[in-house]
Write a structure and sequence with these properties.
Distance between the termini of chain A: 7 Å
Oligomer: heterodimer
CATH class of the largest domain in chain B: Alpha Beta
CATH architecture of the largest domain in chain B: 2-Layer Sandwich
Number of helices of chain A: 8
Shape of chain A: elongated
Helix content of chain A: 25-40%
CATH superfamily of the largest domain in chain A: Response regulator
Strand order of the largest sheet of chain B: 4-3-7-6-5
CATH class of the largest domain in chain A: Alpha Beta
CATH superfamily of the largest domain in chain B: Histidine kinase-like ATPase, C-terminal domain
Largest sheet of chain A: 5 strands, parallel
CATH architecture of the largest domain in chain A: 3-Layer(aba) Sandwich
Number of domains of chain A: 2
Order of helices and strands of chain A: EHEHEEEHEHEHEEEEHEHHEE
Number of strands of chain B: 14
Largest sheet of chain B: 5 strands, antiparallel
Number of strands of chain A: 14
Order of helices and strands of chain B: HHEEHEEHEEEHHHHHEHEEHEEHHEE
Largest interface: A-B, 36 and 39 residues
CATH topology of the largest domain in chain A: Rossmann fold
Strand order of the largest sheet of chain A: 2-1-3-6-7
Amino acid sequence: MNDDYLLNKRILLVDDEQELLDMVVSILKEAGFCQIATAKTVKDAIDLADEFQPELAILDVMLPDGDGFSLMEKRKGGYPVLFLTACGEDDDKFKGFGLGADDYVVKPFLPKELLFRIMAILRRSYKEENPLVKLHDSEIDFSRAEVIKNGEHIPLTAKEHDLLSALYRNAGRIVTIDALCEAAWGDNPFGYENSLMAHIRRIREKIELNPSQPVSLVTIKGLGYKLIVWGR
Amino acid sequence: MNNLLKLIRRFTGILLLSVVLLLFVNFAVLAFLIVWQSPSSSDSPYNVAIQTGKGFQASENGYILQEDISTSLKEKNVWAFVIDNDTLQVVWKTENVPNTIPLSYSLSDIADLSVGYLNGYPTYTGKTENGIVVLGYPKDSYWKHTRASWNYSLIARLPQIIFIVLAVNIAVILLIYVTANVKFLKPVKPITKGIQDLSIGEPVYIPEKGLLSDISSNINRTSDILQEQRQQLKKKETARANWIAGVSHDIRTPLSMIMGYASQLVDDVNLSDAEQQKASVIVQQSERIRNLINDLNLASKLEYNMQPIHTRQINLISVVRQIVVDFINLDIKGDYPIEWLTADNLNVCMLNADKDLIKRAVSNLIQNSINHNEKGCTIYVLIKIDDCCHIVISDNGIGATDEEVEKLNNSPHYMVCDESTSEQRHGLGLLIVKQIAAAHNGKVTISHSEYGGFEVVICLPI
């Protein structure tokens, strides 16, 4: 999967400390981002945003002439927001997420962590058109809800689609039984463990060449399942 | 207030009991006196009179009284005479009959003396052949009930009447008692309320008047002192927690810069390996400082109850499973495999708890196993339910000595220790786990693992 197209996104960075701005800019540039604008106050940020049209904003909470929360509420265009702040209190986090923030990173942070989170937000917000997901034995076309195996197009049911999407969002990582049940059956996902196993079996029949010895959708005993995507 | 009612009830009970007891004792004593002071049936003057009447023998020379009866009468200082049925004259008498006693009687005289007195002497009559015998006992030796007469119904209902009178008496006594007590206890009520409020730390003010004004004013003073001390303490605790929160906040931005630039240096291809290695040490140590700040802040807030606890129903299995998976997903090298030992059919364990804090506690324990076993180890996670919910985190790493385990279980951490200490204590991670367990009314036990390493059990009530 190629995320390079995300590096062209315009990022607005707001923090009152010049040194921190410099550092984050250098981190972003090193990672390959090329369109970055910075502001030190709420007023500057609003003026700049009109012209710059950011596609992601990274905001500090405490600013000299206001706070990041109100800045976020005033934004035009509904681009995603990531808070990068020294306010690590739970209540601050809840407030940020409550207002619709996409992520919340507390200082001090590792540059890699910040980059992972930025990429995750961008990937969620700006999906590549019609990506085909390559597995070991087959391909998944999420937009058409079907699996292509040996040139044959096999349709996915709604539940299978939900489960595969949840697994794909965390491709290469374990997704717990509970998270999968929640993805397929909603907020009160208790008692669906056996149904989940049945669905997983059916998905394997569609995506695996040898469903009894799966290579793409593997079981992690007692914990959950992992989708292994080609090239990731 | 409850205490006051209890007090009144107790007093009333005691009073009731004593009244009943007193009545019972009085009745018993009275009955005893009456039985004791009443002449026995053979000594009763009525019987003596009847026996004396039978003891006469009529002869031609007049009446002759049996010797033993005559002697016994004399001993008791009793005099006697006989009135003839026909003549109503005294036809026989003992020697000790006083002179004032007449020798002839009308029928009405006889009727009188048979029920009452003769010249002040209590008299008793007995039947004899052709006459009656009259015994005269010494003055004031017996009291006779001469003119008693009541409606029959009164006597017939006497037991009920006595019972009602007694009941009314008891009721009246109680009424007087309760009224008096309530009046007395009225000023006590605010005092007991005040003492109750004192014990839960509420500010107290009792009007200082009446019988118990001294006590009231003392309680008010105590309350003032307690409030002031409480405020001082609160101020100190808040200041301390704020100080820690402030310092940790202010360190975050400069530390971000150290971590950020050092991380860039680690990946800088223009630097030598040794220089990159130095930069990576800076990153690692900065991360340690970051974790320390976070722990210190949370620990101090939990200690001074400044951390809001947001409890709601959570599925513990799902929460812990997610943490385990997060650790596995992060452990790219695979140095720290985690085994999930929870029973396969145990998928739901609903608890009322703060999800974030529980996550923090379990993460801390897994992270502890990782931190203390640099060469890698297997970590075992088990949830089991009996009378409470056990989360068991153990490993097969280097573990700890018996002494260390004992210390971890029982010695207070330096953060919450009231003695100065220079001794090296364990980190904040375990303290936070203990604090979080305590905030959920649970407890933490540290021991040796059956797999050869360290084991911590968090026990949460269901």
